[in-house]
Amino acid sequence: MIYLLHGTDTHKARAKLHEMLGILTKKRPNSELFKITTENWSEGQFNELLSSQGLFDQKYIVVLDGLFDKKDIKDCVMGKLSEMKEAPHPFLILDGKIDAPTLKKIEAVAEKAQEFTKIGDGKESYNIFYITDGLLARDKKKLWIDYVDLISKGAVAEEVHGILFWQVKNMVIASRADSIKETGLTPYQYKNALTATRKYKEDELLKMSGDLVNMTHKVRSGEGELGVMMEKWVLGI
Asked: Which pTM does this prediction carry?
């Protein structure tokens, strides 16, 4: 099995790697983790990991971290894609920007491939916080269109989730405070949040906040993908 995490936003890609490792280790308890970098690369060890499972049928999880920086290592890995696909344990490939021919070959055999691109990287930059406009106005159509637009431009569900959770939290705070001084918000944030609370009941805001928190717990437990849950949440506003 092959899982590919790549792109110019290495911070988010690495965060996703750790999330996946948490899910895999829960599904495969007592599995042995092998992290291979250009510093500890061994072709012999790599070939051994393609088929062996260890003593007592112990499972492996193999992370190939930034190997494509070295052409000879990259060529070796690319030549073993079929074996990695058929291996009894997962291979997680973590890398930066990957050229199109290489990406196409990996995607053809990967169980899952996910790209993490910085907002505005190679594209016209924009303010991702505009996703909150539809939420503040309780305009489901606008929120959905803006969400789809952000994802198409390279935003990842984790980032959008964080911004929407931040805005919902501000709305809860504003609804309960007697003055701006109690909130710790800027005048602009407070005005937007307070105006938006007129369109929601407090129990609705608390449920929205709770649902967003529960999403992260479900993802960590391997109960679903954040992107799918976010779509359902947006459509439920």
From this structure: 0.54
